[in-house]
Specification:
With 701 residues, this protein is α+β, with helices and mostly antiparallel strands. Helices cover 41% and strands 23% of the residues. The strands form six sheets. Strands 1, 4, 7, 12 and 13 form a five-stranded mixed β-sheet that branches. Strands 2-3-5-11-8 form a five-stranded antiparallel β-sheet, with helices on one face. The protein has a five-stranded mixed β-sheet with strand order 22-24-23-25-26, covered by helices on one side. It is elongated and about 105 Å long.
Length: 701
């Protein structure tokens, strides 16, 4: 071998890289390459054309799975690098410094070689930088392809360049070859090593996953399949300029899903896809998976953002007439009639306080959803109704409100302050809390226009999410604010009288209807015994309220003697709430149940597919199903055109469906997709009629 000049210092190397990073050059990676080439000019190693070559601090050996083959056969070939202790070489993306190995082939025209198949790398920190590569030993694989007319025997000749680093970095070059004889393929002594290494090459991640960029972070979320439980996870980007290598990545696992937060690169380089390798550790075993997720361009320009705020505003307006909300607002509006003698400024102040309660509550929901999103949860409007606990508590609330409307009992000062029964001296707190209560009872409802607006909000940076939820709150509170500003708009109503009490009692029925609907949702999540438990809890709560309302004793100790057992009953009713899903045996259904594999298989066979994202708690979904999806004409047309009808039921929490929704820019329901036999899916309107749906189905091919 030839002489080797004195190697350069790693400290000098790092200082130079720091200087390049401070320049914030878009061509930073190219700068590293130029720098390394400069370093390479200081060092040289002679190369030998043979199967094994010893270089400075490393050895390279060319391996083949067989020493013989026939024309038309393929052959797995490897380059085994053996490194001296403490030395390392680099992956295809070396990280903050270095350069991955490269191979220049010298082959006959009828013999081709694939790109390098890289095994999963490891992190090699070189403070303050982070590099990706291999220590001790690594085998880089390629596949050789021959034509039917290839001449065998053949010599596979390759010029290999690589870097080895410790406290110094040395570029290496070697020319290696292996001769292949004619004949049947028989395993060589390297066969097992090569195929063992092939298993270490990352394979595509099969489970559902998605990537979204939130502010300066990428959030990778996915579904854990089977018994997969990963103790740790790390993402290795394949290209420079995607992530910040030196920053820690945050991994979280929640039951059947995972989340990985990765800080984005400071370099302003636009990427079309989030491409790389994730390493996962489970029981001290490491696996590697490839991911490649398209990064959609943000639609958050000023016009689109304004449009979505308007949609949210309209959705908030319509939310006022939903059956779960209308009774609360109706009773509060009657307050204007009762206070018709008050000064206009006082009435308007009450309207502002109510609106403040509404808007602050919506902003609090937005902040909570943003926090959950950063925590890796797959979220959306209606997300809370996937929990049996939340559904049961809302059921209790609607039963209680209906009871209060009907009974006209004053049950505690706290309820009186809500402005639903009587009005104390503190009207300000009363109005504000009524706004809060109105948002709580609105939480199960989704009005038209809300789905697209909130779906957009939850997939965008935090600032846009807050603006859209602000629009929702303004739309929701506007009618009440307008009436408080001009009470004369209610002059068409009769003067205060007994009719107001009758109307308030009548409003109990929409409350109870909403409670029955919630009970139906609950029945899809838990078994019959647990539904009966919740009904028993509601009975105990209403009985307790009735007794408290009848307890008119002016002696405090007597009041508390009555209240303590009732408090126990209230706690017992909470204890009866189911806390988890039950495995329910669903009846056979005509539709197909959603899975990504099912959609993929149907599309590969050229089938037309109608995909309905629905849930029992989605009122709009159920209305659409009644008036459009499940009519005789629509069902017959689906049969006549052989359209596969697939339902994705999101009644229960389902990470696969959550990820599928977000792939189409939604985080809420309803969503209807019509897949033609070829081409991209068609997104149908949120509000369907039979005629609208039939027109889409007739046109699709």
């Amino acid at each position: 071998m030839g002489t080797v000049t004195e190697p350069f210092s790693l400290n000098f190397f790092i200082k130079s890289l720091r200087m390049l990073r401070k320049l914030k050059m878009v061509k930073y990676k190219n700068s590293i390459k130029l720098f390394l080439l400069f370093c390479a000019s200081l060092i040289s190693t002679d190369a030998f054309s043979e199967t094994i070559v010893d270089a400075s601090d490393s050895r390279i050996e060319m391996l083949a799975e067989s020493n013989s083959m026939k024309p038309g056969d393929g052959l797995l070939v490897g380059f085994k690098f053996t490194l001296n202790p403490g030395w390392h070489t680099y992956w295809e993306n070396p990280g903050d410094a270095g350069e991955g190995a490269s191979i220049k082939w010298n082959l006959p025209n009828d013999v081709k070689a694939s790109e390098i198949l890289w095994p999963g790398p490891e992190r090699i920190p070189v403070e303050p930088l982070m590099t990706f590569g291999y220590e001790n030993e690594v085998v880089l694989l390629t596949k050789i392809y021959t034509s039917e007319t290839a001449t065998i025997p053949v010599t596979l000749n390759a010029q290999v360049s690589w870097y080895t680093c410790k406290e110094i970095c040395i570029p290496q070059d070697a020319e290696v070859n292996v001769s292949i004889n004619p004949g049947n393929k028989t395993p060589s002594t390297s066969h097992d090593l090569l195929y063992k290494t092939l298993k270490e090459v990352p394979t595509p991640l099969k489970s559902a996953y998605r990537v979204q960029k939130i502010d300066d972070k990428y959030i990778l979320q996915g579904v854990l399949e089977g018994n997969d439980h990963y103790e740790s996870m790390y993402f290795f980007p394949k290209e420079y300029g995607l992530t910040n290598y030196s920053k820690n990545q945050t991994y979280e696992q929640n039951n059947d899903s995972f989340s990985l937060q990765i800080e984005a690169s400071d370099a302003e380089i636009k990427k079309d896809s989030f491409q790389g390798v994730i390493s996962v550790n489970n029981n001290s075993k490491t696996k590697f998976f490839e991911i490649d997720y398209p990064l959609t361009k943000s639609d958050s320009n000023e016009f689109n953002l304004l449009t979505l705020i308007v949609f949210a505003f309209l959705g908030g307006l319509i939310l006022n007439v939903m059956p779960c909300v209308f009774p609360i607002l109706s009773i509060k509006i009657l307050r204007f009639i009762e206070q018709s003698g008050d000064s206009p400024s006082k009435t308007f102040r009450q309207g502002l306080l109510f609106s403040s309660g509404v808007i602050i509550s919506f902003l609090a929901i937005a902040l909570l959803l943003i926090i959950l999103k950063y925590g890796g949860e797959t979220i959306g409007w209606g997300y809370q109704l996937q929990s049996p606990i939340v559904v049961s508590l809302l059921f209790y609330l609607f039963v209680i409100l209906g009871f209060i409307f009907m009974s006209n009992l004053v049950v505690g000062s706290s309820l009186a302050k809500l402005g639903l029964i009587s009005f104390g001296k503190n009207d300000s707190v009363e109005s504000f809390l009524t706004g809060v209560l109105a948002v709580i009872v609105a939480s199960p409802c989704t009005a038209p226009f809300m789905g697209s607006a909130i779906g957009f909000a939850l997939l965008q940076p935090s600032f846009y999410s807050i603006l859209i939820f602000l629009g929702l709150g303004l739309g929701f509170s506007l009618p009440y604010l307008a009436l408080s500003a001009k009470p004369s708009l209610l002059n068409f109503l009769p003067k205060p009288g007994q009719w107001m009490e009758t109307f308030k009692q009548f409003m109990a029925f929409p409350m109870w209807a909403s409670a029955l609907w919630l009970l139906w949702v609950l029945s899809s999540q838990v078994n019959n015994q647990e539904v009966i438990q919740v009904l028993l809890g509601a009975l105990m709560i209403t009985a307790s309220l009735w007794i408290m309302g009848k307890n008119n004793s002016k002696i405090n100790w007597i009041k508390w003697i009555v209240r303590l057992p009732l408090l126990f009953l209230f706690i017992l009713s909470l204890w009866l709430i189911p806390t988890s899903y039950d495995d329910l045996d669903k009846p056979n259904q005509e539709q197909l149940n959603y899975s990504p594999e099912l959609i993929k298989n149907l599309r590969e066979t050229g089938s037309i597919v109608f995909l309905n994202f629905t849930a029992d708690w989605c009122i709009t979904c159920k209305v659409n199903e009644t008036i459009a999806l499940k009519t005789t004409k629509v069902r017959q047309l689906l049969i006549d055109k052989n359209i596969a009808y697939v339902e994705a039921d999101w009644t229960r929490k389902d990470s696969v469906i959550s990820l599928a929704l977000e792939q189409y820019g939604r985080t809420g329901l309803p969503l209807y997709l019509l897949f033609p036999s070829k081409g991209e899916p068609i997104i149908l309107p949120e509000l369907l009629t039979e005629d609208i749906l039939l027109s889409y189905l007739n046109e699709v091919k």
